[in-house]
Design a protein that fits this description.
- With 366 residues, this protein is of the alpha/beta class.
- The chain has a single domain, classed as TIM Barrel (Alpha-Beta Barrel), CATH 3.20.20.
- The protein is built from 12 helices and 11 strands.
- The strands form 2 sheets. It has an 8-stranded parallel beta barrel, surrounded by 7 helices.
- Helix 1 links the parallel strand 1 and strand 2.
- Helix 1 crosses helix 2, helix 2 packs parallel to helix 3 and helix 11 crosses helix 12.
């Protein structure tokens, strides 16, 4: 059986009541990070969202610092920090400080964002996000590797900036690109970044990861090939029958989807989801994004569609081990990231699923 490192993608209280104290919610999820560290997980990830009703992680570096101080081995990161929303020197310094405080356990997940309304509400040009992110990332790497940064670009200018501290990991923490489009995949391969995916079917993910490996090899990079990360919704119970009975009522719903776009509380705001019902402005009509939107729509309506296309992994520990063994051979990932908070699934079901995966599935792939 091939080795797989396991990561947890933490939605940070999707099952929490709106009246719960945020201090209590954060403490609960710090304890969850401690629990998965004891199970031998490789890493713990959150995601940043701004202007979102579920945006409990609007400052990922702050939250991850608390996680870092409560753990000792677990690697920590955001998948992703939304680069267009950051001052690049401040981002570089904050992540470097987190790397120092965790003694070199940061995984730096980067992305450009997909929800137009988040940009509209902050006055950031949604259609410049890729170019803006590229400039931010260039400056972050300069700040991590140079004593001074002098830079004049389209979006930022610095004259002998003196960023401190440098990261604990040298030359800097692993950089991940959270990718969907082929252009983003080729960008990650050319820049020798690790690569992460979550929303496409297994068939599409396999094709995209093959493209990543092909382009990476063509570039002639030195050293080992970057790591490949796949995130899926996962629910584990003592038997297959119990796992499906528990998951079925939460998975094939709008709220149970990986990215529940449209409707909800945002629909009643003045800006709503932006200029397009799918939430990505005119990018919603790009062929690849349109196809992915159709997949997400089917997943929200059809429980079996999720299982047949690898979007969700449901079953007993034995079944989950079999599914992962088969999918790893087809797709070629080496980090499997589990999201157990499916829609409004109650906390006790989520935590039992995490426990069973940690105690019975993780050891099978060591």
């Amino acid at each position: 059986m091939s080795k797989i490192d396991f990561a947890l993608w933490d939605a940070v209280g999707g099952y929490s009541n709106s009246t719960d104290s945020m201090a209590d919610v954060y403490d609960d999820h710090i304890r969850l990070a401690q629990e998965i560290e004891a199970y031998g997980y490789h890493s713990y990830f959150v995601i940043e969202h701004q202007n979102s009703p579920i945006g409990r992680i609007t400052a990922p570096t702050v939250f991850l610092t608390a996680v870092a101080r409560a753990t000792s081995k677990l690697r920590i990161g955001a998948m992703m920090w939304q680069l267009p929303f950051y001052h690049p020197i401040r981002l570089a310094q904050e992540v470097a400080m987190l790397d120092q405080l965790s003694r070199g356990r940061v995984e730096f997940g980067t992305g450009i964002g997909v929800h137009e309304h988040e940009f509209l509400r902050w006055g950031v040009d949604f259609y410049q996000r890729a170019a803006l992110s590229g400039e931010v990332l260039d400056i972050v790497k300069m700040a991590w590797t140079q004593d001074e940064v002098t830079f004049k670009g389209k979006y930022f200018t610095f004259d002998e900036a003196l960023p401190q501290p440098k990261p604990y990991q040298q030359p800097y923490p692993p950089i991940w690109a959270a990718v969907h489009s082929e252009a983003a995949i080729e960008f990650a391969a050319r820049n020798n970044f690790h690569v992460a995916q979550n929303l496409d079917t297994d068939e599409v993910v396999a094709r995209k990861f093959d493209l990543f490996r092909k382009v990476w090899k063509q570039c002639g990079h030195a050293g080992a090939m970057p790591r490949v990360f796949l995130q899926r919704q996962v629910h584990v119970a003592e038997t297959d029958e119990k796992a499906h009975a528990e998951a079925r009522q939460f998975l094939a719903t709008r709220e149970g989807g990986a990215v529940p776009v449209g409707g909800g509380r945002l629909e009643n705001t003045r800006i709503g989801w932006g200029t397009h019902a799918r939430g990505m402005g005119r990018d919603s009509e790009r062929p690849s994004d349109k196809a992915r939107g159709e997949v997400i729509g089917k997943a929200a309506r059809n429980y079996e569609f999720n299982l047949e296309n690898g979007l969700a992994v449901i079953g007993s520990p034995e079944t989950v081990i079999r599914i992962l063994t088969e999918s790893q051979k087809r797709i070629g990932y080496d980090i499997f990231c589990t999201n157990h908070e499916i829609g409004n699934m109650p906390k006790e079901l989520v935590r039992n699923s995490v426990r069973l995966l940690g105690q019975e599935v993780v050891p099978a792939f060591k």
